[in-house]
Amino acid sequence: xxxxxxKEKDKPAIRIIPPKLAGLTLLAGIIVNFVVPLxxxxxxxxxxxxxxxxxxxxxxxxxxxxxxxxxxxxxxxDRPATCIVESGPxxxxxxxxxxxxxxLYAGLALMFNSGWSLLLLAPLxxxxxxxxxxxxxxxxxxxxxxxxxxxxxKVRRWI
Length: 159
Hints:
Layout lengths: L17 H18 L7 H29 L24 H16 L3 H30 L1 H9 L5
């Protein structure tokens, strides 16, 4: 672990708050869906299937957040990381919160039967990948060095 990062710069260079971006993207898709309907599935089938998917995503996010809390590191991306978490869902995904968030988003989009929200999921994941995950990984590499590089070599980014 390196201590050469000044305290005020000891955080990833991220300006996007992923849950807010995801919420706004989902809402935008739902609103567009009212104006230009795009319903890919029968409503009740989509709703119940979406409920199960959303619940799975929420459980994954909750598990990851609890794992962070147990390890005592910061959840917020505007605060310093105190350690590399390798247990729980972080043993099979370096980004289980973003993965769970994407699954939750897909489930909610299905619950609203919003084809537009589903279509917006791919660009949302791209933005999170390039504007959030990449700077986060660069920060963790700089802060934790070989500890993070070893973890990165063992565990895939998504699944």
